[in-house]
Design brief:
This protein is α+β, with helices and mostly antiparallel strands. It is built from 19 helices and 22 strands. The strands form eight sheets. Strands 9-16-15-10 form a four-stranded antiparallel β-sheet. A four-stranded parallel β-sheet has the order 13-12-11-14.
């Protein structure tokens, strides 16, 4: 029962150390937290974006303009701010690009809702207007998109170029576009009209400090930081026969921790001979298939190494499961758990060259020149680990964009043109929306202008004059391809400027931003515990000994 109906004071059932925010106070708190997160990455949008230098908790330095990489290193306490950071992670996993845009757009969606809350409009009405606007926006985006030929190298490079044009690696635009395209086409498999493109499992990015970024290459096969297990084994083999194992080539250890009692030297020798015979049987099951290279995910004993050396077989050990999967796909082999079950069909024969090279102080194993390879390794070179980390982050975005185009070969204009066209369309259509819902619907159009507005601000030109001219160009649903030149801040036609983006990235950005804003607007109660007080109560001030101890 509600005690306030009878003039009684409300009963508090929460701990005294718990902080609570309710109603409009909680909603305004969420909006301000979201705006704070948006302000962190606002200057990281566009080709003239600024870099952020972050000292991570582990002590390493992160230098990047990637929204997800920045927010991943930021520690925040507010639950709404944590939800915004989770937003960039989900965007990165889903489409790989647009992590900065989605944070800026979501914070602006919440910012334009603040005046409605102050006028005591119910959050459900705001959410209803946002959802209606999202539905109409997605329908309008379909009408201004265009199809692309995924087999046309020049078109594909132009699209990938528009993604990495705002990144650190934009100076090596042509090289990185070619690397991304070659890697994606290597791992793409089409069966029965269904395409499979798995970036995480079948593309490995190997970072090797040294040389220049322009020396980076795509290798159809696998490169891994490993050396042979015995110095007498071959380090170069052409057209090798490769066997992959997921088992130990060592003496078996007792699982139950059993013991054997040996009283004489003869009994000890017999026990050792049994173990050696068992190991030799294992190796003979492998040798009978005449392999040139044996790779196992577990260990290889000294006795097994010597047996392989005597039979002119090279062996590598302790590979991760993901790496074994990648090698199996590259060379056409099958990973086997028991050597006695090996068959001729399990042997990989598609590798053209196996070699081991020393780069700096490390040895690297190359399994390359694979015929019809469906796995590859991108070998990145650069001056330092920090540079290589940033290049890898940028390359991941480019790979994701290429993957998105393979699955959905449709494009929409970039440079803020799409957001401005949708904003103009929604603001015009809001006039026909009935009731109070009209104002939140109109506000979504206003919020979408934040993308071209931020691009203009980051270029350093007159924002008010430029955005006004851009609005005039888009009035009446005209010129949907007119946007901002990210380098100069001028208004240009994206058809001539050549900046197009995958429709999947744009639609995912819009859906994620609106849904996040709706979720945070539905919160009307925030309860948070104060952890520090509990320690003081148990152990005295600052967690020290109790008083009088």
């Amino acid at each position: 029962m509600n005690n306030q109906q009878y003039g009684q004071a409300p009963v508090l059932v929460l701990n005294a150390t718990t902080k609570r925010e309710t109603g409009r106070e909680a909603q305004i708190s969420n909006i301000r937290a979201a705006k704070g997160v948006g302000d962190i990455v606002r200057t990281c949008l566009g080709p003239k974006s600024m870099l952020k230098m972050i000292l991570s908790q582990s002590g390493s330095t992160v230098l990047t303009n990637d929204g997800h990489a920045i927010l991943r290193e930021v520690n925040v306490a507010h639950p709404a701010a944590k939800a915004m950071i989770e937003l960039s992670r989900s965007q990165d996993e889903e489409v790989g690009d647009g992590t900065t845009s989605v944070i800026i757009l979501a914070s602006e969606m919440l910012s334009v809702a603040e005046p409605f809350l102050e006028r005591k409009m119910h959050p459900r009405l705001i959410i209803q207007g946002y959802t209606h606007a999202l539905k109409d926006a997605l329908e309008y985006i379909d009408t201004i998109s265009k199809d692309v030929d995924v087999n046309n190298d020049e078109e594909m490079k132009d699209i990938i170029s528009s993604c990495i044009g705002t990144k650190f690696i934009s100076r090596y635009n042509d090289l990185m576009c070619q690397i991304s395209l070659d890697a994606i086409r290597t791992i793409t498999i089409e069966e029965d009209g269904r395409k499979e493109v798995d970036l995480r499992r079948y593309i490995r990015i190997e970072r090797i400090p040294g040389e220049e970024i322009s020396d980076s290459v795509v290798i159809p096969g696998v490169v891994v930081n490993k050396d042979v297990v015995h110095a007498m084994m071959r380090r170069r083999i052409e057209n090798p026969r490769i066997i992959l194992l997921d088992c130990n080539l060592e003496g078996k250890k007792s699982e139950g921790g059993g013991t054997a009692e040996v009283s004489t030297a003869e009994e000890w020798e017999e026990l050792m001979k049994e173990e050696e015979d068992e190991l030799r049987t294992l190796c003979n099951n492998i040798i009978k298939l005449q392999p040139d290279l044996v790779i196992t995910s577990k260990g290889i004993s000294d006795e097994a190494q010597q047996i392989f050396v005597d039979n002119n077989i090279t062996a590598l050990r302790r590979f991760k499961t993901t790496m074994m999967t990648r090698i199996a796909r590259a060379v056409g082999a099958t990973t086997v758990n028991r050597p006695e079950e090996l068959k001729e069909s399990d042997v990989g024969t598609r590798c053209g060259l196996f070699k081991i090279e020393k780069i700096g102080d490390e040895y690297y194993t190359y399994i390359t020149d694979c015929a019809d390879a469906t796995a590859c390794t991108i070998l990145l070179r650069g001056a330092s680990k920090e540079v290589l980390s940033e290049v890898e982050r940028n390359l991941q975005d480019a790979l994701s964009v290429a993957k998105n185009i393979i699955f959905d070969p449709r494009l929409c204009p970039g440079g803020g043109a799409l957001e401005m066209a949708v904003a103009s369309h929604l603001m015009e259509k809001s006039k026909s929306v009935e009731g109070v819902e009209q104002w939140p619907y109109h506000a979504v159009g206003l919020a979408l202008e934040v993308i071209p507005r931020t691009l203009i601000q980051n270029c350093g030109v007159n924002m008010v004059r430029t955005i006004t001219n851009l609005r005039a160009q888009h009035s009446g649903d005209q010129n949907p391809t007119i946007g901002i030149n990210g380098d100069t801040g001028e208004i240009v036609d994206m058809v001539e400027y050549g900046v197009w983006e995958p429709i999947s990235v744009k639609t995912q950005t819009l859906k994620t931003a609106v849904e996040c804003a709706c979720m945070l607007l539905r919160i009307d109660d925030i309860v948070s515990g104060m952890k520090g007080k509990k320690k003081e109560a148990e152990g005295g001030p600052q967690g020290g000994p109790p008083m009088g101890a």
